[in-house]
Design goal:
This protein is an all-alpha fold. Helix content is 55%, strand content 0%. Residues 139-152 have a biased composition (Basic and acidic residues).
């Protein structure tokens, strides 16, 4: 059954008078998203043993940093800042690359976390902060510890 055009016009006019847009109504109709503290147990339960081994410590860092925030409030800049912190605080070992791989693994962990949220229907792929992460070749310089050397 189609709505009465006169009633629709009156409703639109009243919404315009209130300064309410359709986007306002749609945004308020969405359920609140879980916080990192609330959602992490679901992510851990769904992860396989390899993902847990590789990403658990990074997911826990994310939760310590943003635990009481909804998962859609973290920005790409927040992730980049956390990546830099992870890179700078990585343990230096004999085969260390200055934390570069720790930073890359953090971004992979964030992608896995948000891919789970996408799969669960909590966010859209375009709303995923790691999806908005950009990397440039300047961020990935050739390793100074490369095993191969040029031979003339």
């Amino acid at each position: 059954m189609a709505a009465d055009p006169a009633k629709l016009a009156a409703a639109w006019a009243y919404l315009a008078e209130l300064g309410v847009t359709l986007a306002d109504l749609q945004h308020d109709a969405r359920p609140a998203l879980p916080t990192f503290d609330d959602y992490l147990p679901q992510v851990l339960a769904a992860a396989g043993p390899g993902a847990l081994r590789a990403y658990r410590s990074y997911w826990q860092r994310m939760t310590r940093a943003w635990g009481n925030q909804a998962i859609d409030t973290v920005t790409a800049s927040d992730l980049q800042a956390m990546r830099q912190h992870v890179t700078n605080s990585a343990q230096a070992r004999r085969n260390s690359r200055g934390g570069r791989h720790a930073g890359e693994l953090f971004i992979a962990a964030a992608r896995a976390f948000y891919n789970r949220a996408i799969a669960d229907g909590l966010i859209q792929p375009t709303d995923s902060p790691p999806g908005r992460q950009t990397t440039t070749t300047a961020e990935h310089p050739k390793s100074p510890h490369a095993r191969r050397t040029d031979r003339d």
